[in-house]
User: What shape does this take?
Amino acid sequence: MDEKKFTPAELMIVNAARLLQDGDHVFVGVGQPNLACNLARRTHAPRLVMIYEAGVVGAQPARLPLSIGDPTLVSGATSVCSMYEIFTLYLQRGNVDVGFLSGAQIDRYGNINATVIGSYSQPKVRLPGSGGSMEIAAWADRIYIMAPHQKRRFPQAVDFRTSAGFLSGKLERERSGVRGKGPQAVVTDLGLLEPDASGELILTALHPGVEASQAIENTGWNLKVAGELRITQPPTDEELCILHQELDPQGIYLKSE
Amino acid sequence: MTKLCSLTEAIQDYVHDGDCVYAAGFTHLIPFAAGHEIIRQGRRNLVLARATPDLIYDQMVAAGCAQKLIFSYLGNPGVGSLRVIRAEIEAGRLGIEEYSHFSMISRLQAGATGLPFMPMNPTAAGDLEKVNPNYRRVKDPYSEGEVVVVPALHPEVAIIHVQRADEEGNAHIWGIIGEQKEAAFAARHVILTTEEIVEHAIISSDPNRTLIPGLIVDAVCQVPFCSHPSYTQGYYDRDNAFYLEWDRITASPEQTQAWLQEWVFGVKDRAHYWQKMGEETHRRLKVMPRLSATVDYGEY
Assistant: This one.
């Protein structure tokens, strides 16, 4: 039997959606995380609440938002507040369960760089910077990271620590006193990385048809493989149908990497 | 007392070379028309502060208005990078002062509430704190812990776009309210641009919606379609196609300058710009109404 092929975006969005629980309050970005949240709401997590850094709580987007401040996030939402309120009353106070993040570089302890490649004062590439991610990484209970599995994206150490994963290990994060538990999973187009007891990201699952060696070759540190390596369930017809027909009919985010 | 004036007069009176300017609005209500008027008037050496510089500051930097940016997210939202600003920073020609969204907004919150600084819980990330000396750590006087603090920001002028205001500058805003109120209260002067001028009775019919009171407003300018290609909730949609198009335009400095010539220097004001945009754009950005339920304040 031929194995059905899925695009990297489909694999990442479907597997990210499955990490979300019904009732989660999720601080969500645009693009793939937005699709993952909407997919979860239409399948196993109908009571999931989407929170946007623009100050929107309980968004019910009727169309795919291009920007994080799209008007479709407001119409029909439960509440709209100021940015100061969303970052204090919701995030700093501990009312956010899940934060989705990505970045140009993610290191072996889940620290993220979204600021510069090269040195800060003379950057080779100037990236957008923190936005909300510095605080989301620190204060949401659980962090999920979505990123395509490429060696340059998963270096041994990041050039700039925009947002905290486990720093140099779980102990250091615990000592820092930040309230969130840090990265719980990195969803890539090859599989899942999850922290071991020390906070180091190890390969815990592969998507169907992927070999562990592919993940190892595309990681910048010596990637450890979990004793019980899981195989993720392939995206179902229902999941794919919701993604392609309802959520992103033009394929804006489903086509991209 | 009426504070009505033209946008040209307001920029002449309240935006000067070297000023720190905060053109407010998180994705929503970005006062593009004011940015274009500042470009037309040839302001130089401005310190441009905004959480998200967005296309408005990319355009002002391209026109040579700025010496420095204060910001927290330097992207073309949903599209990619702000190419002009990115190139200027990579070439070392534009000064930067960088924050996270929360610390940027906290600077405004301190400024708006008359405090010298604002405390925040530490985030453990550390590297922004290292490169920006405005981040400090102070001991929590009530525990053994520390808090991170950032100083108050007091822009010389904040530019705030709203759906409707009366002639004194009492203004209703709905939709994403971002950092509008904090920026207005933090600034020394406030230029208010508004889609509509309404009777005071409209404002006072719904006082909970008055985010900006006239007492802090210096100038009131009626500027319909002020925020295009950003949007005004309930009035017109965000022009996502233009945000994508800007990425293509700014691929070359010549195209960028040609765009400024045509759409900023080549038009006399926002009404002219909007007319020049044409009917296809007007139709494309039209929104259908979706009214809220009315509330009863009661007669007392």
